[in-house]
Amino acid sequence: MATAAAAEEPEVAEEPKKKKPIVLIIGGVVGLIVLIVGIVLGTLYFTGYFAPKPVVDEHAAEAAADGHGDKKDDKKPGKKAKDSPELTRFEYTYMQVEREFLVNISGSKKVMSVQIAVMTHYDDRVFENVKKHDFAIRSAVMDVMRLTTDADLVKPEFRKDLAVKIRDAINTLLEKYEDFGGIEEVHFTNFIVQ
Hints:
Elements: H1 2-46, H2 58-66, E1 81-82, E2 89-90, E3 93-96, E4 101-104, E5 111-120, H3 125-132, H4 134-146, H5 150-153, H6 158-178, E6 185-193
Antiparallel strand pairs: 1-2, 3-5, 4-5, 5-6
Helix pairs in contact: 4-6
């Protein structure tokens, strides 16, 4: 009987050995997962992924995007920000040009009389520059308007095209004298052709 008891004891000893490799494999897999997660998180931490994002100076980013150079940065107007909790928006401001523009239509007996307002989202220095160079701007706008013909007047997009040409002429002139234009749009507040 001693042999039978001895034969039973090795069988009992073998069962824990079978469970031990399964526990070791599960422990190894869990340890490997923890190690991989730790390496990923450590890499993200040391590369600055969890660091606070830097605050971007919108005026500098807009100046770089506009491509207006660094010639006279102290003269370049800044954008006016609107108070909005959701997102940053810029305030649009308008200025009516005081006197109307009156020109003859090219090759015709008709005359065109317009009054314009200019719009920008930069600060008041743009409007100060418009007032400062009033005579040169009036001349440039009238030169653009004088190129209008009778055929142009019947085009559906004539007023929009004329507004874009006037805006470009004003910005070109302001960039020449002040190194910055800043006029976003030109709007007609009065438009008569007779």
